[in-house]
Write a structure and sequence with these properties.
Length: 549
């Protein structure tokens, strides 16, 4: 990802067959790429280094952090004003809180990187003696002091995966940097960049030796700034796709490029993954004489989600954390009733799960689909023996949404209590049960899109069903389901009026042929006879059926 963001071929210097990058740092000779240093405020970053600042660069996983650091190392070393070294601290994660073992690993990593990038053997030759003389809580600081004193050219360190360290090991590293900060640049690094998923201020580090939690901001209170690496802009996304077109002759139709942007909101790994899947993983996509159409992007999206690729699987694993669920569950309910803290929200945004600005919502539509699927995975597994998707496919191949929701009423009445309790959120629980039921049926021949956010007051679900006629013709049928929650504060008639207006507007926006308004009654003491109902539209009214649960 190096060169002008809008120059399709400026990232490489020789003709090779390049592809979209799905793992590891970008290699310009092998990958289509957007210049890493064009994706950040380079002037600000260089000024921080010149001003001898220690600062943080953070971003969600697989957004280009390592590529950015490596590009910065190359630039600074080429300019010659500094000695710049990139080093990855993840190798010491296996040592846990065994600080002595971790420091030995880190000194070895620093020595190897210095030898390869700077042709400098100082750390390699002195690491054993330093560890023996100064111990695990002093050897790193002494190493950087002696190395800085050995060469008048200021040293700049770019430390990747700093937040992979844990407990006393992380505390020791941060404190060693803080302890000799005043000796820079002649006796300590001129500038240090700590790079990870989260800002160091948000680290809650448990020290086994001290028997207490230590805040990262306290252990590293010399941090000057915290910079965040953002997602691709739409222009950068199109520039990346243009490189494939320039080198292979295969173009992306405008609608396909727009669909990639809509699905990913510029998340770099997702952009590359969709494009790679569409261009290289199917026989039709490998035909360079045919353009990439929107249908190929839709199929690529489903392949990524159903394949539980590592990127999405890692994201799903975070849903087990209580502070993540405190933010995500109110989103899934569209609820204004939430009890997460500002720190909880910042953490979820740092992970890349939530959008960084605006309403509290999932970062992009692909993540918005993964989250409910993951949270309802056990439910869906149980439904395999109870629900046959074929029951809800009409003779003409269309989807019987009314029949599906009628059956769900019966299922929910029988099983609601056991499933809703599992989610520990009164408003999100019922809706997750519906999501799981819909997945079981719709995934057999269609796809689901959702819109949800904290405080929205509703969840919008769009079903796109692929109807195949007896003659083999394919037609995409669209149906809308809107979910709302009834509490003691809101009357049923008012809730239905509001819901019908919102459902009709959503149907109009996405071109759906019919809609369904599902109302979950959360009031205490209500019998099922009072809660369960169906109201069909009157002649002349919008085709929206109201379902009570």
């Amino acid at each position: 990802m190096q060169a002008s963001a809008l120059a399709p071929d400026a990232c490489h210097t020789q003709a090779v067959v390049r592809k979209f990058n799905l793992e590891g740092p970008v290699e310009a000779e092998r990958h289509y790429c957007i210049p890493p240093l064009n994706r950040i405020n380079l002037d600000e970053l260089l000024e921080l280094i010149a001003d001898r600042r220690y600062f943080v660069l953070h971003a969600p996983r697989q957004t280009g952090k390592t590529s950015t650091l490596l590009a910065l190392q190359d630039r600074l070393n080429a300019e010659g004003e500094y000695r710049c070294l990139y080093v990855n601290f993840e190798g010491a994660q296996a040592a846990g809180e065994d600080t002595a073992r971790a420091m030995k690993t880190l000194l070895g990593e620093i020595g190897t990187r210095a030898r390869r990038a700077l042709k400098d053997n100082f750390v390699d030759q002195s690491k054993s003696a330093l560890a023996a003389e100064f111990g695990p809580d002093g050897c790193l600081a002494e190493c950087f002091t002696r190395w800085s004193e050995a060469d008048p050219q200021p040293l700049v360190l770019l430390i990747d995966e700093i937040d992979s360290l844990v407990g006393d090991t992380l505390i020791s590293v941060l404190r060693q940097f803080r302890g000799r900060y005043d000796m820079r640049p002649n006796g300590f690094p001129q500038s240090v960049v700590l790079c990870g998923v989260r800002d160091v201020r948000d680290y809650q580090i448990y020290s086994s030796r001290e028997g207490t939690h230590v805040k990262g901001g306290s252990a590293f209170n010399i941090k000057a700034e915290s910079l965040r690496l953002g997602d691709f802009t739409e222009a950068e996304l199109r520039a990346l796709l243009a490189q494939h077109t320039a080198e292979s002759g295969q173009r992306f139709e405008d609608a396909a490029a727009e669909r990639i942007w809509a699905f990913t909101c510029g998340q770099p790994w997702l952009v590359n993954a969709l494009a790679y899947q569409a261009c290289f993983k199917t026989e039709a996509g490998r035909d360079r004489g045919e353009p990439i159409r929107v249908e190929a992007i839709d199929q690529a999206r489903e392949a990524l989600i159903l394949g539980r690729v590592t990127h999405l699987d890692q994201l799903a694993n975070t849903l087990r954390e209580e502070r993540v669920r405190r933010v995500i569950l109110p989103m899934l309910a569209g609820s204004a009733d939430w009890d997460y803290s500002v720190r909880d929200l910042e953490y979820v945004r740092d992970l890349g799960l939530a959008a960084t600005e605006g309403a509290v919502r999932i970062a992009n539509p692909i993540y918005a689909e993964v989250v409910p699927r993951e949270l309802t995975a056990v439910l869906q597994s149980g439904l395999e023996a109870q629900v046959d998707p074929a029951w809800y496919v009409n003779a003409d191949g269309s989807l019987d949404v009314a029949g599906l929701l009628s059956a769900f009423q019966s299922y929910f009445r029988e099983h609601a209590e056991s499933w809703v309790e599992r989610y520990a959120h009164a408003e999100a629980g019922p809706q997750l049960v519906l999501h799981g039921y819909l997945h079981r049926v719709v995934n057999s021949g269609g796809r689901i899109e959702r819109e949800y956010a904290v405080g929205r007051g509703r969840i919008d679900v769009l079903i796109e069903w692929r109807q195949t006629t007896s003659k083999g013709a394919v037609r995409i049928r669209k149906y809308v389901i809107e979910c709302k929650v009834r509490t003691a504060k809101v009357g049923l008639d008012r809730l239905i009026r509001t819901g019908l207006d919102q459902t009709a507007a959503y149907m109009d926006g996405c071109g759906a042929e019919s809609g369904h308004l599902v109302i979950f009654d959360l009031r205490e003491g209500q019998s099922w006879e009072e809660r369960v109902f169906r109201r069909d539209p009157e002649p002349g009214e919008p085709p929206i059926t109201v379902w009570g649960l």
